[in-house]
Here is the input.
Amino acid sequence: MRKILLLASFFLSCLVQADGLPDLGDVSQEIVSPLMERQIGEQSMLQIRANPRYMDDPEIHDYLNRLGARLVANSNEPGQPFEFFAINDNAINAFAIPGGFVGVNTGLIQLSQSESELASVLGHEISHVTQHHYARMMSGQRYDSLAALATVAVAILAARSNPEAANAAIIGAQAGTIQRQLNFTREHEKEADRIGIGILEKSGFDTRAMPSFFERMQKATSLLEGSTPSYLRTHPLTNERIADVDGRVQQIPYRLVPDSLDFQLMRARLIALHRQPQEAIAYFDSALGEKKFGNPVAQRYGLVLALLRSNQVKRASQEFATLKKQAPRSATIVSLEGQIRRLDRQDKDVATFYRRALKEFPRHHALIYDYAEVLLQEQRYKEAIELLDEQVAIDGNDAKLYALQAQAYSALGRHQEEHHALAYNYILHGNLHGAIEQLELAKRSGNDYYQLSTIETELKQFREIAAAYASKKK
Here is the structure.
């Protein structure tokens, strides 16, 4: 039986205090607990995932989470759950929200000249979470519900993306107080720098990357007339702060740390995805031809992606054959091989390729999604459902898995389960009314008692939440 108890329904039930909903206690208490922080973060992520700039790219997502996990393991709270995600925005920016959620703008990834520089920013943001800076800023303030606290967290995202528009995100939630909370204090910044340097060192990165990256951001600021990067507005950067960081890292023995191939691959991936296909092809052709800059393996990886985007499948296959000889075996390269094989109409063994690849890289999301899509295309619906049920049991908050489940159930005529899966997909994208509509369709589409009981419970809960939202807007 598929997993049908979704964590999102619990988190949504905590958004407001209303009759019949769980009471999480008085949120005006002096201390915001770690549990509350996590709930605030989960609630905020439902809204963030609904933002069109949330980057739903499994390769970038997996890379950030591998890098982040390495850093978190060397933090003062290694057991704290974290999720790292990308925002598709060229602005130089990164941010953390309560409970262990860290967002990174693609512009910051591209600006980073080394993996240690990117890691230095993540280490700093991780420190804001593990030092509970948000909780410390919120403590002592009065809020009538966790919804107000979640509004603060979402406002942080708005502020980091567009500080001038932040007020629009915090209307009705003590705007003046919240606006002051969006910017960390100097003490918080210095503490996050200090803790972040320790995380960098323990994780085997170059600690000198932090002050050098700060200095480059500061120099770039002087060239932008009245347009300070968002990261510097929300993380005040002063000469004193840079000097303090530099002084600390000078006491640490220097180590030369090469970038991982994954870092180079992801930078090339962003170029291939963000530029026009022909422009990206020209860029990578030039890089490979002149051999003046960049990692040749990463540049050829980017070239193959750009060729696929421009539907030049034959040349993409030729370039990939060269890439496969040059590159060490990794999940990212295997995933790209799967894309090439799927486009080869003569390849009759694609499903076997993915089954073997997942045994080697069982948690690589691009492979999971692509294998499910192959099974659906080959009309092997029961195998697809078996795969997806297994993955949902591992991660019940992955919206893509539910969308794929819905396709499989639809093909089999199991419409109750189709609409139930779509409801979960919608709720994870912050679409409460869409989820209610899908649950209503599910209720009318079948007579499975167990499913109907769950659907009735969720419908009641979601309707109460929608009604509570409506009453608060009046």
Q: What stands out?
A: The first strand starts at residue 83 and ends at 87. The chain is about 65% helix and 5% strand. Residues 1-29, 159-182, 223-228 have pLDDT under 50 and may be disordered.
